Amino acid sequence: MAKRAKPGARETALDRVVAVVNDKGGVGKTSLAANLGGQFAGAGYRCLLIDLNRQANLADDLGYRGQDIDDEGAGLLASILTGAPLRPAQDVRPQLDVVCGGSRLEDLTPVMVSRLQHHGRGAFRALGDVLAPVAGDYEVIFIDCPPESTILTDLALASARWVLMPTKSDLGGLLGMTLVAERFALAREINPGLRLLGVVLFATGTGARAIQGEALAAIDDAFGGTSPRFETTIRHAERTAQDARRLGKLAHELEVEAAAQPAWWEELRSGSRTKRISATAASVAGDYRALGVEVLSALQAAENAEKPRRRARRPRTTP
Ligand SMILES: Nc1ncnc2c1ncn2[C@@H]1O[C@H](COP(=O)(O)OP(=O)(O)O)[C@@H](O)[C@H]1O
Ligand SMILES: [Mg+2]
């Protein structure tokens, strides 16, 4: 079994754990977790991504599906079953580790149902218990939550300090958010430190300001009061999203590759048939960068307000 943390030590270890949550699928949870984690790691922060999805889309976005490190969720399942600390796969990118998701997580739901019956909602603390012993190795930890899976999302909400919620401005996205608001209130009964870090509008057309206003008012309703929201929105860019999953590359990696590819006329002259990477990758990468800066300053502002409990965290290396 994991060593029992001193009172308060578990919470301090978990104070940079951010759950990326929305009950609706397709609103950008996985893209945000992967790209923010990837860019933070690229900037020198030690970063961990935890994938709670049975479909493990993070494996596609980071390009490790089917590779040796891809245990399809077996390690995460075993840790929750035995209480042994998580053992993240190291360096999917420099400074970026992952706890893989996948089909093995299907066995987690019945285990949690039985624990809930015996121990009540406190059973949801299991993920935090196995994460806390390794959490100190990282400056930021993102949990990529699944859609429509109460139990796995509740595990994340009971372990995280922060919720980052992507949403689209359509009705479906807003409905998912209302459900999260209800869960969020329940999770705070066992995890009183849980806070909403902010809401991000994802894949929203730049001309959709009016709809965005409505969306944000609905978010305030759902969380009861004015919710923190990030100014940055991630632009709608289908080709970049397709390039990303096809190649297993993050937006800022595509940005570098797009800049290095031969000019289109050279390809036309040489008769090359390789698929070109969309130049929009640079703009999307810029959106994630701007969001990353906002996320870090929101974390730092909250931590400064709570000093001296917090320790200072800075990137360990310069890229
Ligand atoms: N900037 C973008 N514009 C349009 N579509 C995007 C963008 N980024 C990602 N996508 C696509 O949107 C879909 C949902 O994104 P994803 O991050 O998987 O959402 P979730 O994890 O909430 O289900 C995916 O097919 C993804 O490729
Ligand atoms: Mg996802």
Automatic annotation (TrEMBL):
<dbReference type="Pfam" id="PF13614">
    <property type="entry name" value="AAA_31"/>
</dbReference>
<dbReference type="InterPro" id="IPR027417">
    <property type="entry name" value="P-loop_NTPase"/>
</dbReference>
<protein>
    <recommendedName>
        <fullName>AAA domain-containing protein</fullName>
    </recommendedName>
</protein>
<dbReference type="InterPro" id="IPR025669">
    <property type="entry name" value="AAA_dom"/>
</dbReference>
<feature type="domain" description="AAA">
    <location>
        <begin position="16"/>
        <end position="189"/>
    </location>
</feature>
<dbReference type="InterPro" id="IPR050678">
    <property type="entry name" value="DNA_Partitioning_ATPase"/>
</dbReference>
